[in-house]
Every structure is written in C-alpha cells, then in structure tokens.
Design brief:
The complex is a heterodimer of chains A (180) and B (407).
Chain A lengths: L12 H4 L13 H12 L8 H12 L4 H11 L3 H10 L11 E6 L2 H5 L2 H12 L5 E2 L5 E6 L11 E3 L2 E3 L4 H9 L3
Parallel strand pairs in A: 1-3
Antiparallel strand pairs in A: 1-4, 2-3, 4-5
Chain B lengths: L17 H6 L4 H6 L4 H10 L12 H5 L11 E6 L8 H8 L1 H15 L3 E6 L4 H16 L8 E6 L9 H8 L23 E5 H5 L1 H7 L1 H7 L7 E8 L5 E6 L4 H7 L9 E5 L8 E2 L9 H6 L8 E6 L4 H15 L5 H18 L7 H12 L7 H15 L1 H5 L6
Helix pairs in contact in B: 3-6, 5-6, 5-7, 10-11, 14-15, 14-17, 15-16, 15-17, 16-17
The chains are: A alpha+beta (180), B alpha/beta (407).
Chain lengths: 180, 407
C-alpha cells in the first residue's frame, strides 16, 4: 500500500474511497483465469486482450464496476486509471447494472427516414422511461444508439444479442412482452 | 447482365459453411496463390486496380507494397470489420454469408505481405456476424487451412465508431481507448504493436480470391479506368427495395436507385447521400455520376463505404443534418480540439434551428467553423463531418432559412 491508507486494509482503493459497492464479489473462476491467460497469449503484447477480458468481466459480473476495473487492471499489470479510461470510452461496457434486457433502438439517418422517432416514442410510452433509463423492476434498459448497420431493414433495434428488423409499434409490443 | 462476384454464393442457405464454399470453387485461389511468389500476388492485385472498399479508396496492391522489404520482425494483417458508417451494411452480409471468402482473402494477402498472424476486428454489436465468422475460422483450422503458417485472432470491439478509422482501430486492438494516431508513420511502417501492419476492409479482401483465380485483367475490366471490379452498394432510405446490390463500379447513381426499385414515399427524389453518412449530399440533379472513387470525387462528394441513403421530396434536410450532427457529436473521440468542440456546438446549433429557435447568423457560423476546422485534426473523422455540414447547408440553404425566425 503506497497511498497512505491503513496498511492492514486489503480493500481496493475504490472501496476505501467509498466509490465501490463492497458487497460485489469480483473474481473470476480458475477456468476463467485460464481463459484470460489464453486470450493474453494471442497478442504480441498481452494487454491486447484487455477488451475481450472486459467483455468477459461484464458477462460474469453483469456490469463493470470500479472494483471490476481494478480487478482486471491487476490481471494485466495496468493501472486502474488506464482500465477506467478504456471502459468509459466504449458504449458497450455498462458501468451500472443494466436491466435484464437491453433494448437499443437505432436513431441514425436511415432508421430516422424509416420512422425511428415514432418507434422511440412508442417504446418510451410503453416502458414509461426515457432513453438511458432502466425500468423500476429492472427488466429493461432502453437506449437509443447510432447506426447498427442494418439500414436495409429500418427501423431496427438491437434487443440483447439479436437484431430486430423492420420494426412497427405492433412488433415492438410483441418484443417487449416477450422480455421477462 | 452484370457479373456477380462478391455475392456469388449468397443465394445458397449454407453459403457460410466450408463444404458449400468448397463446392462453389472456394480455396482454389489459395491453392494457386500458395505456389506464387509473394511479390507476384501483390503485382496481380495492383494490376487488378483493386481499391480499398472501406472508405478511403486507396489502391490495395500499392498499400501492400509499402511493407518495408528489409523488415525482419513480424508483420500483421488486420481486417477492419468495424462496419459503422451510417447507411452501410455490406460487410455484415459478407461476414454472415461468405466468411470463408474473407478467410481465403486473408490467407492470400498474408502470403503477399509475408505475415503469419492476422487480427479480425469485428464491431461489438455484430454478434451474429461474429458467431458465423468464428464458426468458419474453426472450420478452417480443423481443415488445416489455418494454423499452418498463418493464424487468425478474432477481436471484438466494444462500441465506438472511431475504431473504424484504421489507427483508432489499432489503438483499440492494443487494449487502449480508440484514439487515432498521427500519420506518418503509416501502419504499413509502424502499425499494430509497433510492427508493420496492413489494415484492409472485409469486402476488399473478399475481392482477392477472385482476382487470383480469374486474373487481374478480368477484374480490372469489370470496372472503370482507375478502379477495377464490382462492389456492394448498401441502398437504404426512401427507395422501394432497400438492400445490398452488387454492381460494377461504373454504375451511375441514377441506375442504382432504379435498381433499388426507384424512389418511394412521394416518388420524387430530393437528395442522395452516395457514400455513407460522411459523404457530401447530392441533389436530384447530380445523380448521373459513376459510383467509383474518382466519379464521386469529381462530383464533389465521395464514394466512401458506398452506403447510399435516398431522400424523397418529403424529407426535411435540416432534420437529416441534425441526425448526422448528433452522430458526429456522439462519436468524436475527443482527442483533437477542433473536432471535439465543433461537433458538439454544431449539433446544438442545427438542433435549435430544427426546433425553430435558430439565430440569424447560425448558418454562416456553422459554415465558417466547418471550413476552418477541416484538415486540422489527427484523423479524417472531422473532415467526414464537415462534408455533410457544408453540403447540406449550401445546397439546401433555403430550407434551413425557412426554419430560422427573422432569417
């Protein structure tokens, strides 16, 4: 410990600073640590595997907390600041726990021309939340996103891993009802 | 009937499998290329007049020849599958429906540049394309096509348009935020992990096997004087049949719109974006233009990624610009001041114009800021934003002014 914190504490800096949720258990299984080492070996410099390992961290922990950033930083011998810089740069890393499902409606030009504003208004009304918010029951996080490159089937959205194409209000209703 | 080269296998529902690819003659080009001298492969691609199909349109063979001959360390091939240019969706189709064409193109390119490791950078949102491509890579390893002198690493992005810019992509591949790097040195001299690197687009590499099999002359003959081949045009917006269409690069924009079923909605054309969101807009009078690199350049726009977005008479041009301005403000990486600041402020100004709260001087301010900032940044992102800012306002100024009180 070099930051002046009590040396008896093995808590991470984010926990000590009161920035992290101490209840969150952040650690990979042995098998996952093996996968981290495999990923790192694929790159001439192991830190090339940072994005893939952050994807793993998000899948495992649900989102990337400050604690998770520190944990991953240690796996790469990087500073937590470097990992924080990376996590905050990209849109696919969640820094708070998202809903159980993520509905990301494209609002770029081709979707706009095909009626995306109406689709977005419909989702807003159905879920009762604005883009960027999560329903109170933790079921759905609603986002508007830039071009997902499926403009031939506009308007479209990404629902979790799937592209949902040629959206109509009726199709949105069916999709949202299917999300538990 | 024009020749179909890139989409030749798409009608087969099993086109993504190794069996189907082999059955249609797949990997014959690699069998031929592995007996060829590396320099002869590059020469063939040069003669074919293949130009990069990701956006910049740089001659592919020439790019390959920039790898320093005296270099003795590793050389990397990086595939840019970070498709994200608004209005573009062709690489998604190639990854999903003909992943082995990309692997074969990579094998041949790797031999040409004497490379033993390739990285494929796929945008994080492309889950199904990633699954399809990963399955194809596994098949290729099992069949001994990969792993014998050339390895492929699939790298998933995490959501950032700027990573489609080749040096931003390399930063991201190295485990950093996707900040573009100052050129020179160009990636061919100092690229991924500090080593000479060739970054090629998916579609560009998919052109390579047919060039090797059927020859440079055949490929060059499909196109125009300065660009060979066919390419995949992503056509969307107000057309009756939005889809990806393959055509020789000599096709005109008018013919392409007709191919896509013509203008929908009012049926009357107002404007077209010919080469992805960053291309300058063309008016209905400007569509008799060849859809190759030089044709669009001469028309004051660019072919870019060949993403064609069609707007009929009922489309509001200021609203369209607002949507794109929001995109540039969101995606600016923040590294260079002119881009970071201008994209944010210009979005706010276009937004207030659309909402009827524009100021009398707003249009001239936007034009002034756009013109003075162009060319002052590390990468081409801001220049790509400036294309729409200037062209939308200059070509449709009356429509903007009509929204501004006391203009």
């Amino acid at each position: 410990m070099t930051d002046g914190a009590p040396s008896t504490s093995n808590r991470t800096p984010a926990v000590r600073a009161g920035l992290a949720d101490p209840a969150t258990v952040v650690s990979f299984s042995e098998a996952q640590l093996g996968e981290v080492r495999r990923l790192q070996s694929l790159y001439p410099d192991p830190r090339g595997a940072l994005l893939p390992v952050l994807h793993m961290a998000q899948e495992t922990f649900g989102y990337i907390s400050l604690e998770a950033e520190e944990y991953v930083a240690a796996l790469f011998d990087l500073s937590p600041a470097h990992v924080h810089e990376v996590v905050t740069f990209y849109t696919l890393y969640f820094r708070e726990r998202p809903g159980r499902h993520v509905v990301a409606v494209c609002h770029n030009l081709s979707c706009h021309l095909a009626g995306a504003p109406g689709i977005i208004a419909h989702v807003k009304q159905k879920l009762g939340i604005d883009p960027g918010e999560t329903t109170e029951d933790g079921r759905v996080t609603f986002l508007t996103v830039e071009c997902l490159c499926a403009c031939e089937a506009a308007p479209m959205a990404q629902v979790d891993d799937r592209y949902e194409l040629n959206l109509t209000p009726e199709k949105i209703d069916r999709l949202l009802e299917g999300l538990r | 009937m024009a020749e179909i080269v890139l989409m030749r296998n798409f009608s087969n529902p099993d086109s993504h499998t190794l069996n189907a690819y082999r059955a249609s003659g797949g990997y014959a080009a690699w069998d031929k290329a592995r007996e060829m001298d590396p320099a002869a492969i590059t020469e063939e691609v040069k003669k074919a007049n293949l130009r990069g199909l990701g956006g910049a349109g740089f001659p592919t063979g020439t790019k390959w020849s920039f790898i320093p001959k005296a270099h003795t360390g590793p050389v990397y091939l990086v595939v840019n599958a970070d498709e994200g240019e608004p209005g573009t969706f062709k690489d998604r189709y190639l990854l999903e429906r003909d992943p082995h064409a990309l692997i074969e193109g990579m094998l041949i390119a790797a031999r040409a540049i004497r490379c033993t490791k390739g990285f494929v950078y796929i945008r994080g949102e492309y889950v199904e394309p990633w699954r399809r491509f990963s399955a194809a890579v596994k098949e290729a390893y099992d069949a001994g096509l990969l792993g014998r002198g050339f390895d492929v690493v699939i790298h998933r992005g995490a959501g950032a348009y700027i990573c489609g810019e080749e040096t931003g992509l390399l930063s991201s591949l190295e485990g950093k935020k996707g900040w573009p790097k100052i050129k020179p040195p160009f990636p061919a001299i100092k690229g991924a992990f500090g080593q000479p690197t060739i970054v090629n687009n998916v579609e560009t590499l998919c052109c390579v096997p047919p060039i090797v099999t059927r020859g440079a002359e055949w490929f060059a003959g499909l196109g125009t004087k300065t660009q060979g081949g066919t390419r995949m045009y992503s056509v969307s917006g107000r057309v009756k049949k939005p889809a990806v269409y393959e055509a020789p690069v000599s096709i005109t924009l008018r013919q392409l719109i007709e191919t896509a079923g013509g203008v929908s909605a009012t049926g009357r054309l107002k404007a077209v974006v010919p080469g992805g969101g960053s291309a300058a807009i063309l008016t209905a009078d400007e569509i008799d233009v060849a859809m190759d690199v030089d044709g669009l350049k001469a028309a004051g726009s660019m072919i870019g990624s060949a993403g064609v977005m069609v707007m009929d008479e009922s489309v509001s041009i200021p609203e369209a610009l607002m949507v794109l301005a929001r995109f540039y403000a969101h995606e600016s990486c923040g590294q260079c001041t002119p881009c970071r600041e201008s994209t944010g402020w210009i979005y706010k100004m276009v937004h207030r114009i659309v909402e009827g709260r524009g100021h009398k001087d707003d249009l001239d301010t936007i034009l002034d800021v756009a013109k003075r900032g162009a060319g002052t940044t590390i990468c081409a992102f801001y220049d790509g934003a400036v294309g729409p800012y200037i062209s939308y306002i200059e070509k449709f100024r009356g429509e903007f002014e009509a929204l501004i009180p006391h203009a």
